[in-house]
Amino acid sequence: MSDAWFKEKIAPDGVAEDGCHPGEAQALQSYLNKKTNTQEAAHAITQPIVSSEDSGANLHRLWDLLQDALIELSATHVPSLIILLQAIQDLPDPDLTSKPKETAPPKDGFTWKGLPKFGHLWADVHKQDHWRMDLYTALSSFPTFSDRLKKRQELRAAHVKKANIEARLAVANIGSIPLDWGYDAIADALELDNAVLDFEIPAAREWIEVAGKELYQGAKEGRESWALSRPRSIGRADRRMSLIRWEFWEGRMRECQECSEVAMNAGEGAGEEMRKLREPGK
């Protein structure tokens, strides 16, 4: 793992808006290099925030660092980063009684529980509604087919990795990342006529492989989700998840045999995962 990545994340002038605190970067690097355990890392990486003059205001710099690590570093680090986030989330509330009243957070304020603002920051940066248009704009800037294909593969890998991370965060109940995002991803992939199938079918498969049990439980219980109430091209908008919709999705996954090879392979695998959840033991 390159030292350069961690150095790049540090604010050069100490201003939180420009990057993270050196202690945060060092704590993360030591943890990922297995020089510290999870509890030691959780304590070390949060100390700069706890000891800062305005803990709540500076919280985003730590979330920026950890979210960048999830997205930018190797996928092999994702499980360790998820465990670290869980450990931070489980930390006791810091004692900020000695802080000046004008900088101390409100009485109902600073807590590590739920990783305050983590989910909102993730959504603001990584859940853009216009991502499909941005994708086509990015690809159109490459003059040759081979260049566009290479860039498409690169962007697809990033999109699928992001779905895997979001599913892991949702299952671990970290940072208020909801399972609704999984329903949203699957519904978009299978019910929109403008879905980017070679991106969205593999991303939906990640949600099913990682969070399939939780998503299927929601179908059995008739769980309501805002993600399902949005009108799409196919099917009927209904806030309540159902076994009927699950089986419809399963069938749509198998129909991907007429899609590109990437979408077809992902759809075939996802359809089988969905069947196993619906018919355990068969």
Description:
- By secondary structure, this protein is mainly alpha-helical.
- The protein is 60% helix and 0% strand.
- It has twelve helices and no strands.
- It has helices at residues 3-9, 22-32, 38-50, 59-72, 78-89, 118-126, 131-140, 145-171, 180-191, 197-221, 243-254, 261-278.
- Helix 3 (38-50) packs across helix 5, helix 8 (145-171) runs parallel beside helix 10 and helix 10 (197-221) packs antiparallel against helix 11 (243-254).
- It is globular and about 55 Å long.
- 32% of the residues are buried.
Topology of this structure?
Blueprint: H1 3-9, H2 22-32, H3 38-50, H4 59-72, H5 78-89, H6 118-126, H7 131-140, H8 145-171, H9 180-191, H10 197-221, H11 243-254, H12 261-278
Q: Work out the radius of gyration.
A: 21 Å
N→C terminal distance:
43 Å
Low-confidence stretches: 102-108
Average pLDDT figure: 90
| Helix segment tally | 12
Q: Give a quick account of the main beta sheet: strands, pairing sense, barrel closure.
A: none
> What is the number of E strands?
0
What can be said about this structure in brief?
With 282 residues, this protein is mostly helical.
Features:
282 residues, mainly alpha, 12 helices, 60% helix, globular
